[in-house]
């Protein structure tokens, strides 16, 4: 069995240290498009250098382009950024954006594409489709269990990568907008400000449930999986990934060296002799931790034992350990064994043959001279040729044949050596290099013809809201939040509908959710006019059972540029919801004609498998509503979606673009959506009255009650 140890490289020094400590591959970011924009990211020349270093030693470099790209970025910057690295032999790119996937497959056909955990890949159906689209590896969400990983591997012949050590996000990766909404620093754009690491009061019915020093309710402990590595490997995970591109070289090298030790132990002896030394756990603790470690979600669905609660008390550095790491892995470089054979004959150029693995090179130097005094000996040639200094090689075997009575200067021996090393280095790294990429061709933006008059739709979260909205004449389509309605209520809606009725699918759709959803709704699905899709897994699942003919992707199935539009159109003729992180100009540049846009509603800022009720109260599966109060006394409501066992954390203020009609009309949308979550019947009736009368200034007492989202400002 072969597995890969994959390390983070937030700087040039860290990349080298990771390889020196035993990493098989390193994922690192350049100066653009990576999910760690504030890391000490590598320049193009540094990237080329570490690609060469990796290839010289049989390792790999993966470039992170795991963010969402805007129209001008993907059209004007991505090609020129990737092309020199592609030619130089970059092994793979890690991508979040479906548009980037489409782009890379089109212009860089020999480059491997790894689907980032930011894609929120929840099951085998999505994996199969991504493989068909050219993806060679998937990075699974941290939330998936060992049985779920096994099922994906059993049904899909694809490499699986999974996190085994480091920081753990509270939110499903790719589904977090908290930093984006409260500070304009988007996690989808590599600029997360980590508001999850701040203090919050958990409030229910006016009572704070976490008094005292227990405010870090969204801050998970780091993960450490040394003790369950055999289980993870045997589940089908090929690449064992360490998190930490913001960490120092000493951290990365230290963690890598310990995981290298235990991976090798398992691969050599299997489970029988696999035992973790607590001293190694202590070393990992000394390198970094937040209130101890957890084993993530591999064997536990969720739980308070994963959360730090109190403020992390980062311990003083273990200076002895740091010094040891520096000496072993940082103040040194890897060296490969090389065999050298030198032949020096009268009246022939000097010859040196180098053998390094499968690579064989031959170089020549000037003719030797006839000795006037002492002739050059083979021992002298061997001594000088073996001194390889600060090169990537060390001599394992060396032999010299030299005719009698010949003399060679030390300078010529050194020149022969330099030629040999240079040629061997070139021979190895040139094997990875490619021809030029395919020429770039511009993709036209979306120009779908839409109705002269925009349709108006509404999302409702309970039966009372539905009955109120049903009477609103201007609404032509209603989305029913499946997780919030009883079966009886849904039957009443679909059997007596007066408007188009779409089922709004769960935000998370894992294996257990498919079983529950089938049990509850399979008999009535064909009565819906369509489905609002929150993730790709449920889309392919519904397609497989031929449930409905009309689909619309919600805002969190991101379509941020014309290449992602192209990807979606190749998949099916689907309407999508305009992404909430683009400003008006960026929407216009991309082209949103024929699509839908949310103009009102409380926006989810986190979708989490960990549960506020379970962490701070009591899990009663009663669909409770909690609030998180931040240091600015803003309240973020938390909805426990118990049927599918996840939490939705909502922004503290509702988005409202209702009075921006003139601008929105220019986008040539097919429809606009009002999204109702916590609003009472009275509040909705009041909104309806003001909207019908175009009394937009009366909708809210003042603008401080609402947010315009990113419509005006956008995100960086």
Question: Topology, please?
Answer:
Layout: E1 4-9, H1 12-21, E2 25-28, H2 44-56, E3 60-65, H3 71-76, H4 78-88, E4 92-95, H5 98-107, E5 112-115, H6 124-132, E6 137-139, H7 146-155, E7 159-166, H8 178-183, E8 201-204, E9 207-208, E10 216-220, E11 222-224, H9 229-234, E12 239-242, H10 249-269, H11 278-287, E13 293-294, E14 307-309, H12 319-330, E15 336-344, E16 350-356, E17 359-365, E18 369-370, H13 378-386, E19 393-402, E20 406-407, H14 410-430, E21 455-460, H15 463-470, E22 475-481, H16 487-495, E23 500-504, H17 511-521, E24 530-533, H18 536-544, E25 551-553, H19 562-571, E26 575-576, H20 584-590, E27 596-601, E28 604-608, H21 612-616, E29 625-629, E30 635-641, E31 646-650, E32 655-656, H22 661-665, E33 671-675, H23 681-692
Parallel strand pairs: 1-2, 1-12, 2-3, 3-4, 4-5, 5-6, 6-7, 7-12, 11-13, 15-19, 21-22, 21-33, 22-23, 23-24, 24-25, 25-26, 27-33
Antiparallel strand pairs: 7-11, 8-9, 8-29, 10-14, 15-16, 16-17, 18-20, 27-32, 28-31, 29-30, 30-31
Helix pairs in contact: 1-2, 1-10, 2-4, 5-19, 6-18, 10-11, 10-12
Summarize, please.
The protein is built from 23 helices and 33 strands. By secondary structure, it is α/β, with parallel strands linked by helices.
Strand content: 15-25%
CATH level-3 fold name of the largest domain: TIM Barrel
In the CATH hierarchy, what is the superfamily of the largest domain? Answer: Aldolase class I
Number of domain units: 4
Strand order of the largest sheet: 26-25-24-23-22-21-33-27-32
Oligomer: single chain
Mean pLDDT level: 94
- CATH class wording of the largest domain: Alpha Beta
Number of strands: 33
CATH architecture of the largest domain: Alpha-Beta Barrel
């Amino acid at each position: 069995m072969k597995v890969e140890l994959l390390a983070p490289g937030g700087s040039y020094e860290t990349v080298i240290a990771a390889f020196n400590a035993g990493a098989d591959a390193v994922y690192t970011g350049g100066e653009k498009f990576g999910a760690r924009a504030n890391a000490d990211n590598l320049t193009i020349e540094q990237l080329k250098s570490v690609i060469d270093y990796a290839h010289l030693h049989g390792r790999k470099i993966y470039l992170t382009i795991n963010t969402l790209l805007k129209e001008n970025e993907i059209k004007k910057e991505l090609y020129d950024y990737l092309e020199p690295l592609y030619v130089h032999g970059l092994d793979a790119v890690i991508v979040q954006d479906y548009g980037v996937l489409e782009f890379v497959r089109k212009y860089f056909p020999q480059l491997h594409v790894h689907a980032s955990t930011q894609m929120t890949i929840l099951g085998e159906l999505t994996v199969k489709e991504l493989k068909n689209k050219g993806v060679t590896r998937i990075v699974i969400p941290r939330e998936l269990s060992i049985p779920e990983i096994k099922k994906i591997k059993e049904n899909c012949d694809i490499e699986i990568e999974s996190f085994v050590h480091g920081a753990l996000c509270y939110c499903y990766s790719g589904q977090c907008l908290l930093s984006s909404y409260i500070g304009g620093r988007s996690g989808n754009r590599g600029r997360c400000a980590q508001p999850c690491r701040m203090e919050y009061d958990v409030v229910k019915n006016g009572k704070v449930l976490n008094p005292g020093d227990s405010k870090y309710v969204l801050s998970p402990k780091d993960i450490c999986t040394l003790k369950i590595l055999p289980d993870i490997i045997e589940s089908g995970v090929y690449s064992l990934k360490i998190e930490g591109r913001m960490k120092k070289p000493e951290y990365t090298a230290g963690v890598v060296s310990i995981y290298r030790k235990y991976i090798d132990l398992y691969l050599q002896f299997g489970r029988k002799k696999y035992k973790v030394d607590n001293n190694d756990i202590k070393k990992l603790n000394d390198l970094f931790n937040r209130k101890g470690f957890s084993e993530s979600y591999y064997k536990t669905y969720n739980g308070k034992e994963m959360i730090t609660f109190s403020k992390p008390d980062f311990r003083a550095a273990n200076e002895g350990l740091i010094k040891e790491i520096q000496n072993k892995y940082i103040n040194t470089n890897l060296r490969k064994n090389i065999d050298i054979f030198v032949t020096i004959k009268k009246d022939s150029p000097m010859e040196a043959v180098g053998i390094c693995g499968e690579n064989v090179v031959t170089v020549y130097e000037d003719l030797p001279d006839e000795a006037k005094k002492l002739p050059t000996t083979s021992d002298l040639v061997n001594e000088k040729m073996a001194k390889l200094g600060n090169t990537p090689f060390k001599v394992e075997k060396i032999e010299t044949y030299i005719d009698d009575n010949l003399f060679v200067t030390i300078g010529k021996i050194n020149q022969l050596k330099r030629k040999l090393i240079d040629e061997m280095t070139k021979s190895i790294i040139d094997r990875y290099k490619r021809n030029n990429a395919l020429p770039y061709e511009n993709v036209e933006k979306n120009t779908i013809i839409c109705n002269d008059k925009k349709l108006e739709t509404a999302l409702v979260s309970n039966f009372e809201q539905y009955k109120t909205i049903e009477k609103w004449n201007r609404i032509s389509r209603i989305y029913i939040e499946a997780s919030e309605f009883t079966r009886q209520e849904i039957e009443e809606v679909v059997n007596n509908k007066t408007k188009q009725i779409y089922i709004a699918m769960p935000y998370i759709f894992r294996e257990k959710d498919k079983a529950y959803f089938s049990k509850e709704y399979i008999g009535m699905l064909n009565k819906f006019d369509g489905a609002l899709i929150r993730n790709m897994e449920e889309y392919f699942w519904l397609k497989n059972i031929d449930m409905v003919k009309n689909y619309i992707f919600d805002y969190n199935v991101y379509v941020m540029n014309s290449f992602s539009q192209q990807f979606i159109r190749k998949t099916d003729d689907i309407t999508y919801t305009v992404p909430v992180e683009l400003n008006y100009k960026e929407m216009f540049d991309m082209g949103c004609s024929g699509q839908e846009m949310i103009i009102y509603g409380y926006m989810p800022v986190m979708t989490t498998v960990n549960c506020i009720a379970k962490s701070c109260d009591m899990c009663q599966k009663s669909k409770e509503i909690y609030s998180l109060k931040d240091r600015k006394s803003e309240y973020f409501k938390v909805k426990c979606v118990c049927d599918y066992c996840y939490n939705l954390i909502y922004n503290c203020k509702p988005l409202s673009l209702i009075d921006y009609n003139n601008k929105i009309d220019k986008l040539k949308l097919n429809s606009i959506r009002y999204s109702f979550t916590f609003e009472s019947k009275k509040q909705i009736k009041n909104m309806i009255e003001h909207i019908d009368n175009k009394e937009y200034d009366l909708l809210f007492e003042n603008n401080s009650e609402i947010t315009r989202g990113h419509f005006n400002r956008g995100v960086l």
